[in-house]
């Protein structure tokens, strides 16, 4: 039985509990500050003050397309010849590859087979007497060494774990969580780049084929790369459209001598609160990711079918998306500097 004297305390306790629940629900319902939210929020606030309609830029990102694969003929080793290699680990490798499962193996397993063949063949060849089989194995070894990079590039451009990472969808990076998953992504890229360098330098025995599948699985679990790509491309498109909008309607916000410049002061507050404090902070972290990822990714995908796509999104040449975005950022700040100087409005107090 509840005593009457305790009712006020119970009510106060319940009220505090309801407030905490309501506050938690409110936090849970707040929209994440991803690239769509930041540009929509900033542009709508500007348009509301300028009092001119604004239409966001249409967004059609460039997508990767799988290059066509040209199969290279390889010397065929018959079942009987494989049986005569039973004393070599290479014989078991060839037998497994010639099985039904081996013939439909994914590109990653095809690469592993090529590398393992190259690693095992020399020792096995040395055990054979001169003859047709030894000649075939030597020819196969030379061909696989020459085509190893082709098989590696095939993994880069056809394996789902990588093609999904480069697909620009609807998810983007969220402010204050920009670097989540970066270490895992850098580790996977580094592992793949090490394999590529060993192939290029023909250091076959240093390639750990047991790490290829786990590395690809690591790529499959990360989403940072595809979210970065969308954030970059979307920001460049929206900032370009917003700069064009400000350029077109600049005359409507020019300060007039002898008149109150309240609208202009509000505009500058919007710039400081929603561009400098949020959107520019977002773009700055985006640039940090570009700085860390660009060099290894360009090296990894160099000479592959995705080289052009990667250079467009990570390169520093004129026309590359990072350079386009930097140019629009400079253009945006220059517009605001000219606006503030023409109005002689002091920066808002922080």
Automatic annotation (TrEMBL):
It comes from the Bacteria. This is DUF3080 family protein. It comes from Shewanella insulae.
